[in-house]
Each structure stands twice: as C-alpha cells, then as structure tokens.
Amino acid sequence: MTTFDFDFLRRLLKERSGLVLSADKEYLVESRLLPVARRRGLAGLSDLVQKLKAPGAGGLLAEVVEAMTTNETFFLRDKVPFDHFRQSIMPALLGARENRRRIRIWCAAASTGQEPYSLAMCLKEMGDKIAGWRFEIIATDLSTEVLEKAKIGLYSQFEVQRGLPIQMLLRHFTQTGDSWQISPDIRAMVQYRALNLLEDFSSLGAYDLVFCRNVLIYFDQPTKIDILERIKRVVEPDGFLVLGAAETVVGLTDAFKPVHDQRGVYAPQASPTVTRGADTPFARLDMPATARLAAAMGAR
C-alpha cells in the first residue's frame, strides 16, 4: 500500500464514518482491509483503492467501512453506567414520567446488541416497579452486519462470560449447543435500525435517555461537537445522556452539563435548574447522588 493509497483511505473513512486514523495506523488498515481485498479477488490494497475510486463501488465501500469499524462490546460494560441507570436515572425518570408512563431510550453505536440487551434485562428485573409502563429501546449502528447478529441475540460462551452475572445468564438466556440465545421477551424489547451518526437522526424522535458510549473517542473534535449538539435536539429537556468512561462534553459543548456525582451522566443545559420546580425529580440533578436517589424513590 502506497502513502497515497493510505491517505485516500483515511480521507474516505473520515468522510463516510467519522473514523479518524492517525498516520501511524497503516498496520491497522492493512490487517483489516487485506481480507476484504482477498474476498474480492484483488491482489492487494492498491487494487482495492482503485476499485473504491471506480463508479458503482457502494457495496465495496460499505464492506470497507464495516471492516474498519471497531465493534468491541460486552454485557453490562464498565458496570458503573448500569448502576447509575438502575439506582438514579430510572427512579428520576419514573417520577418525571408518571403521567404518560412511557420512556424512550436510544442506544447509539449498539454494535452486536450487548448494551441495549443489558438495559432491557435491567428493566425486566425491576418487576412490579414498572408494571403498566411502556418502554421503547431503539438501538442503532452503522454496521448492518453487527445489527443482524444483534437481532438474533445468539452469543458465544466467551461473549456471555464477559461482564454478565451467572444469575442473569440463567434467567434470560437459553443454551443452544456451545452458544447462548437471549430470551424472546428481552429481544422483543429492542428495535434495531441502521444509522450513521454523521447523518441526520432527527427522524428518530425524542428520547428520555441516550446511551452514546465509546464511539465519540474515534472522532475528531469538530465531529464530536456536531454529534453532541445534534443529540441535544433529540433529548428531552429533563432527560439524560450517558457517555463512555473516556468521553466527556467538558471543553466541547455547553449543550450538556455533568450530573453531580454520576460519572459519565449528563443533563441538557436547556433551562436553569431553578425553573424546574423544587418538587420535581429533575430539580435534584445537582444534589449528591444519594440524596437525589432517595428523593426520586420517595416521589414514586
């Protein structure tokens, strides 16, 4: 692969997926795209680049983007965001949505489904606390290949062992040979859609909670800012955004502010806290987590 070929691929991937590759990532491009070239009967990456430049290369381009997209994920990844979801976010949302009894959740960059299914299992285990409520979990990803795997919900022994407690595995999965398939009722709680975060996603509607974890780290600063500010437009004014452990809005945008004592959780900057009302769950966003949790639980 020549320097010109590598630069072309870097520009192409940035334009189509937002993925930013530094100059020292040539080895990564070669390791992931050489198998694509071989499947296409091409001699190497220079031939692959020529094919990408030719008319009608849409299918090959999609294959290249999918090969370069990192789809690392596992159940209950990093644990802390799911503790916040169960202990603080859900009690607050249940109090705030008592009248309509409906909550919408968006998992962006959902990969092979472990994150949305983790949220669905957490909800399922709330039992009677959410009886009569309607939940919509919309999970999106750029890669149609990983979405097809997610819809099936079939995982290897290695995949279910990564972060998933044995009790949850036995409650919500059925063993099929050497694999485990998540139960139909959990699968039914999640809707999967192909979506590129670089494109307009306003048609998805409004959400009470957005999980957008471990994807912004692959974008440059202008792209991060653009995505965060567009996410702000689809989050309810009293909703939440959850980012990955290595991600933040600080220094990027004023669209969201960190929620006190809730690492990785952010609230829209829509209105000053004083306008939310002293007796509403979202007047408690600036309280310590323990005080807010107690208040939200009491409000129910």
Quick gist of this model?
By secondary structure, the chain is an alpha/beta fold. Helices cover 42% and strands 17% of the residues. A 7-stranded mixed β-sheet has the order 6-2-1-7-8-10-9, sandwiched between helices. Strands 3-5-4 form a 3-stranded antiparallel β-sheet.
Which descriptors would you attach to this protein?
300 residues; alpha/beta; 3-stranded antiparallel beta sheet; 10 strands; 42% helix; disordered C terminus
Task: Describe the secondary structure blueprint for this structure.
Blueprint: H1 3-17, H2 26-39, H3 45-53, H4 58-68, H5 80-96, E1 102-107, H6 114-124, E2 134-141, H7 144-152, E3 154-156, H8 157-161, H9 166-172, E4 173-176, E5 179-182, H10 184-187, E6 190-194, E7 207-212, H11 221-232, E8 235-243, E9 256-258, E10 265-268, H12 289-299
Parallel strand pairs: 1-2, 1-7, 2-6, 7-8
Antiparallel strand pairs: 3-5, 4-5, 8-10, 9-10
Helix pairs in contact: 2-4, 5-12
User: Which fold name corresponds to the CATH topology of the largest domain?
Assistant: Rossmann fold
Overall geometry: globular
Mean pLDDT: 87
Run of helices and strands: HHHHHEHEHEHHEEHEEHEEEH
Uncertain regions spanning at least 5 consecutive residues: 271-300
Strand content: 15-25%
Sheet having the most strands = 7 strands, mixed
Termini gap: 61 Å
Helix content, binned percent: 40-55%
CATH H level of the largest domain: which superfamily?
Answer: Vaccinia Virus protein VP39
Radius of gyration: 21 Å
Topology, number of strands? 10
| Count of DSSP-assigned helices | 12
Structural class: alpha/beta
